[in-house]
Fold this sequence. Notes:
Blueprint: H1 2-20, H2 27-44, H3 52-78, H4 90-115, H5 121-134, H6 138-143, H7 149-162, H8 164-187, H9 193-222, H10 225-231
Helix pairs in contact: 1-9, 2-3, 2-9, 3-4, 3-9, 4-5, 4-7, 8-9
Transmembrane segments: 26-45, 57-77, 98-117, 164-183, 195-212
Keywords: Membrane, Transmembrane, Transmembrane helix
Amino acid sequence: xxxxxxxxxxxxxxxxxxxxxxxxxxxxxxxxxxxxxxxxxxxxxxxxxxxxxxxxxxxxxxxxxxxxxxxxxxxxxxxxxxxxxxxxxxxxxxxxxxxxxxxxxxxxxxxxxxxxxxxxxxxxxxxxxxxxxxxxxxxxxxxxxxxxxxxxxxxxxxxxxxxxxxxxxxxxxxxxxxxxxxxxxxxxxxxxxxxxxxxxxxxxxxxxxxxxxxxxxxxxxxxxxxxxxxxxxx
Length: 234
């Protein structure tokens, strides 16, 4: 247990150090994440939903915006630059893997929605949060490991389960904070400056978590716990 805690501390220390070592270059990632945060928030309150056409608009817009987010994150997390020169290539680089991955995400969400029809709303919400937790490493599987389609979902779930303490705990905190903010935006701050400030706050929070989580993934994916333990001399 002591070694697990030591490993936890070392991984987080390194991830935070790498995340903020070039913080002045994270602005492109922040801008595209903020734009997606606005879109996700309006989708949360059903602005683009309600029919098949709305669902298709959701699907393609989500894929396009996520492609830009993933390109910006790859530039910052993997290469340590702002990505201002490569952001224009987002769709050509990531449109296909993102589109194929989101297809299965939407498909499973529809299945959960169908199953949750006869369930209490709190149980249905828990199912959605569990699914979001299992697929939380999806962006990293795409831009770091080059996965796509259903394979990216499978590998995300496997990675999260294999790193339930180091990666999973951080992800749970992120999901709960994001859900809380979106819930407040949907039911408490539907108009006005307060809504804008909440979404702006969400953009900062998402950027922080995406960047740190990307470095966590990179570190954990590169060496297993046993390898890290061996490298520490145990």
